Amino acid sequence: MKTRFLFPRKFIWIGWIAVIVSILLFFLNELPFFNLKTFAMINNEVFRDTEYFKLIQDNLQFEIASVLLIVGLIFIAFTKVKNEDEFTSKLRLESLLWATYINYGLLILAIMFVYGLGFLNVMAYNFFTILIVFIIRFRFVLWKSFKSEKS
Predict the structure, then answer these.
(1) How far apart are alpha carbons 55 and 32 in whole angstroms?
(2) Which of 17, 33, 42, 131 allows an S-S link to 73, with CB 3.0 to 4.6 Å?
(3) pTM of the predicted model, to two decimals?
(4) 66 to 1, 11, 84, 124, 142: CA distances (angstroms)
(5) Predicted confidence band at 2 (pLDDT cuts at 50, 70, 90)?
(6) Cα dihedral angle (75, 137, 69, 11), rounded to 10 degrees?
(7) 3-class DSSP state of 28
(8) What's the pLDDT tens digit per position in 7-17?
(9) Cβ partners under 8 Å of residue 1, min gap 6
């Protein structure tokens, strides 16, 4: 089966490296060499007026880690498997459906039970949830089917 829109197999390693580097960046304190001037479409700081389309000085460590995590997870999630066929396409679709249900189920729970700035944290985590759940479910079902095939 010809698969469009999937990355070649070597991209999975690039994805894992990006995920590992991003997780390290999330856990490290703000490193000074990430303090850079950057373009901000909107800059809304506490006790200051909102600025639009300005160059600002900021530590970009969190932004770089977030982008790396998203790109890495996309590479891991959407890289071809060794034997890409209709069965794996079906597993991908079902896993994406599961991930979507779980992601929005968690979001509904957060809307109902999380308030204040805590909700902002939940929304930040929500960016990654759908990809993480998809990867976990797809790889688990793929592993389970491969294991049952061997026995």
Answers:
(1) 18
(2) 131
(3) 0.88
(4) 34, 18, 29, 9, 27
(5) low
(6) -20
(7) coil
(8) 999 999 999 99
(9) 84, 85, 86, 89
